[in-house]
Amino acid sequence: MNRNIKLTIAYDGSEFCGWQRQENGRSIQGVIEQALEKMHGKAVNLTGSGRTDAGVHAVGQAANFYTDIDSIPADRFTPALNSLLEHDVRILESSEVDSNFHARFSAKARTYRYQFLYHAGANFGYNPPLPHENRCNITLQRFPRLDLLNAYGRIILGETDCTIFAGAGDTSKSKNRFIYSSHFFIENGRLIFEICANAFLRNMVRSVAGTFLHYEEKDTSPDELGRIITSGQRSLAGTSLPPHGLFLWKVEY
Q1: Which of 115, 124, 186, 199 has its CA 20 to 30 A from that of 249?
Q2: Which is higher by pLDDT, 169 or 38?
Q3: Would you say 115 and 76 are in contact if contact means Cβ atoms under 8 Å apart?
């Protein structure tokens, strides 16, 4: 009987067209499936917890596949696959799971993080980011008000109509999502925005972060922003942020 193997995956999304397999582009799903095909001698389908856009990174993407190879213990798929993958994709963990486990549909919550570098003139000095940091952080020209940003974050907690944050082409039947946490904090000299929800709309995290920073700069009150979000008018959302500072941080089952 085929075993169901769950993978925890990290990747630098800079050189990828996204998670989903593409005919004319390099995808994370595609390169891992190529490695699995080399191991199995046939095509193997890999199912991810969700699709990340081009340029988005991960330290906790989850995926699963079925294998008919009996000779490899589940945990040894980690080094076996890593020996076949390029430097910008790493398997962090592999384990056998129940045959009914599905990386996408079994997921209970997903956590994303945005990472920001910042400077603000005389208050913080000017420390330009190192070249490699530009691949995985967004640089802010000023330091925003954390108290106001976190007041915004509380607006969307619980079950929320996220229509205003839905990217073009989102086909979800319902735009309601349950948001468990949404907050900003400082960690290792970076400003972090972390959001956890049961699921996300297309480009939703990029839109939420961009909207919060946009209205914080305008010093908009939380009550007013709440009314804007409730309106569902996409035109009132802030500009969606670029993908390169965004990480799929964790998937919970």
Answers
A1: 124
A2: 38
A3: no
All CATH 3.30.70.660 domain ranges of the chain, comma separated, are 109-252
**Residues forming the active site:** 53
| pLDDT at position 133 | 76
- 132-167 pLDDT per residue, tens: 777 889 989 888 999 999 999 999 999 999 999 998
For residue 130, the model assigns a pLDDT of 73
Q: What is the pLDDT of residue 142?
A: 86
Amino acid residing at 250? K
More confident residue, 85 or 171: 85
Decide if 252 contacts 227 (C-beta within 8 A). Answer: no
The closest alpha carbon to 248, from 197, 190, 210, belongs to: 197
184 and 149 Cβ atoms separated by less than 8 Å:
yes
d(CA 229, CA 138): 24
> What DSSP designation does 178 have?
E
H helical segments located in the chain: 28-40, 77-82, 146-155, 204-217, 222-231
Cα atoms found within 13 Å of the Cα of residue 253, Cβ hemisphere only: 18
Q: What is the pTM of this model?
A: 0.92
Q: CATH 3.30.70.580 in the chain: give the residue spans.
A: 3-97
CB-CB contact of 58 with 247 (8 Å): yes
Q: Which fold has domain 3-97?
A: Alpha-Beta Plaits (3.30.70)
Strand 246-252 vs strand 57-67: parallel, antiparallel, or unpaired?
parallel
